[in-house]
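ugh ok fine here u go
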Amino acid sequence: MDHWERIEAAIAGLATDCVPVALWRHFPLDDQDPARLAARTVEFQRAYDFDLVKFMPSGTYGVEDWGAKTAWRGAANGAREVIETAVTRPEDWRRLARLDARAGVLGAQNEALAAAAKELGGVVPILQTVFSPLTTARKLAGEALLAHLREAPEAVEEGLAVITEVTIEFGRAAIAAGAHGFFFATQLATTDLLTLADYERFGVRYDLAFFDALRGATRLDMLHLHGERPMFDRLSGYPVAMINWHDRLAPPTLAEGKRKFRGAVVGGIEERTLLATGTEAEVRAQAREAIAQTNGRRFVLGPGCVAAIAAPEGNIRAIIEEARKPL
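structure:
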């Protein structure tokens, strides 16, 4: 099978020749230049021949055009941090500009994707990373967002409406640039931060507005649930083909996730510690257990979230070798 056949068969629950596999990582500093980010993406894919390319712009690209200041301070996963928020007071939400998603830092991400997609030639699915509107809001305001949701919910909703419009336009530009779909990441759909009622009001409605606007434009999308207590049951009904969460660190298990979700579950590898510092034998054992847990069906072997940048080549190749064994 080629990459497309393997991924699409897995999503449909059909037999595959082997388990699809994909890992993704940040490229700190290189992700600040579209040409370098495209080159590193292509280099990474050609080195490992994954079945899926999760495009990796910096995690803060969505807030910089609104004035947030960011930096990479050596995080093990390569993520940039917001060091100066753009929203500090509740009234700031009402002043968010309707950005041009084809310009500035936003535009640069799809410029980079276009270059990578052209080089890869469509032989492998490529997903642009999109953050949920509420996730973007948190990066704009930091922890102040949680207070604003209580003190001035209507103001936050005005801001979320603008963020959603810009996110939709960014998504349309990504498809035009060559993306086959989206890796849609939400970092607040976890009950250690919000209640289900809170996320229904401030998260779900804006998430679904994005998917409704892009309906029919993508070939496959993946939902990423970030957090220790993900709202899996509520969000597993989103219109996506794949779902990814920290399955080694948070519920449900892969097997339980398969029972709750109709598409393919993605994960099986603990990305924070094991992938970076474990032995090849330990990594292989975890990969084999994940394959056994899912019977290798409706499953893509990968990390629960972005892989540590220090993950050694031997561990990455060990995962791929386990996945490539015939089913």
